[in-house]
Amino acid sequence: MTTKQVTRSTFDEVMVPTYSPSQIVPVRGEGSRVWDQEGREYVDFAGGIAVTALGHCHPVMVKALTEQANKIWHLSNVMTNEPALRLASKLTDATFAERVFFANSGAEANEAAFKLARKYAYDNFGPEKNEIIAFTNSFHGRTLFTVSVGGQPKYRIGFEPAPGGITHVPFNDIEALKAVISERTCAVVMEPIQGEGGILPATAEFAKAVRELCDQHNALLVFDEVQSGMGRSGSLFAYMEIGVTPDILSSAKSLGGGFPIGAMLTTNKVAASFGFGSHGSTYGGNALACAVAESVLDEINRPSVLEGVKRKHALFREALEAINAKYHIFKEIRGMGLLIGAELVEPYASNAKAFIGAGAEEGVMILTASTNTLRFAPSLVIPEEDIKEGMARLEKAIAKMVSQ
C-alpha cells in the first residue's frame, strides 16, 4: 500500500472536528526548537500545553524509551512490572504520598481522584457525604465527571445531564467557600495554579485556609497538579511551593514528557478505600510509559533543574515587561515558574488566539489560556538563548498586531 502524503488539509477530511489546529504541521523537534513540513524553524514556548518538560527528543527519554521498547511494552493490570514499581517508589519518596495509581492522562488521574474521594467518604462517613466543591474557571478534564467538576460551563453544554453533587465557588475567595462547605462535603478540588482558567495562582493564604476548612469538615483536599506539577512551579509540585499538603494529588502532562501517562498520588489511609476491583485501567501503569516517566522524574527532580526554572521565570517576566513597556498590551503578568500568563488589555483581550497565528508567522509557538491571556509553558530546561530569541520573535508579532 502506498503511503498517502498528508497535509493540514487532511485533518479537515479525516479527523473529528473537535480541534482547529494551526496550519503548520511540525515534523521534527530538538530541544526547544521545532521544524515544520516546509522546513521552517520555531522556538517552542508552548511545550505541547505544558507537556514537553524536557523539550523534544531529550536524550534521557530517548534512551529510556528505546531500552524499554526492546524489553516489554505492556502487561495490563493482571501483572505488575518493574518500571511501574520503580516510578511509584520514586514518586512516593519525593512527595507526601504513600500510594500511587497510574492512568493514561490528566482526566483519568482526576477521575480516579474524584471517585476515590467519594469512596473514602462513603466508607468512613456514609453515603450522604458526597458533595464535591470546586472553583469557577477551573479545568479538570473532559470526561463527563471531570468536566462537571471543572468550573467552566461552556465545556458541559450539550452533554447534560451532568453528574450531581458538585458545587462551584469563586477562586481565591475563602468566604465563598466557608458559606457552602458542610458535613456533606467529601472533598474540595483545586488547582494550585488555574491553567486553562487564565494562569491564576492560588494565594498561599487561601490555600492554607482551604486546608483548614477541609480538616474542620472531614473533607479531603484534592490538588489537580496536572499542569502545575513536575517541576513547572520551580518545586517538584506546586503544593511544596505554597506550603500546603493535599490528601490526593493528580499528575500527568509533564510526568511523561510527551509520552501519555497520568498518576494519582495519595496516603495509605485514603488509598484503603480503593480496594481490589474498585477502580482500574487497562493501560495504566504501562511498562513503556512508566519507563519514560521515570527518566523524566529523575531528570527534573534535581536542584539544578528546579533552580533553573525560577531563574528562567525571571527572564520571561523581564522580557514580557520590556515588551509591555513599549506596546502597553498586557494588563497583568502572572504565574509561577515556567507556567506564565500575560493577560491582554482591550481590544485584544477578546481575541487572544490571534496571537498564536501571529507568533507562528514570526517563528515562535505560544498558547492562550481563557480567552484573554497568552500562556507560556516551555521546556523546563529551555536554553536562555532560546528564551531571548523566542521573545524577540514574539515582540515582532506583537508589533504587527498593534500596528493593524
UniProtKB/TrEMBL annotation:
Key word Cytoplasm present: yes
EC code: 2.6.1.11
Reaction equations catalysed: N(2)-acetyl-L-ornithine + 2-oxoglutarate = N-acetyl-L-glutamate 5-semialdehyde + L-glutamate
Main localization (coarse): cytoplasm
Classification via CDD domains: OAT_like
Binding site for pyridoxal 5'-phosphate: 106-107, 139, 224-227, 282
Cofactor details (free text): Binds 1 pyridoxal phosphate per subunit.
Keyword Cytoplasm: yes
Any one GO molecular-function label of the UniProt entry: transaminase activity
Pathway: Amino-acid biosynthesis; L-arginine biosynthesis; N(2)-acetyl-L-ornithine from L-glutamate: step 4/4
Protein residues bound to N(2)-acetyl-L-ornithine: 142, 281
One Pfam family here: Aminotran_3
Domain of life, source organism: Bacteria
Family: Belongs to the class-III pyridoxal-phosphate-dependent aminotransferase family. ArgD subfamily.
Protein name as it appears in the record: Acetylornithine aminotransferase
Organism: Pokkaliibacter plantistimulans
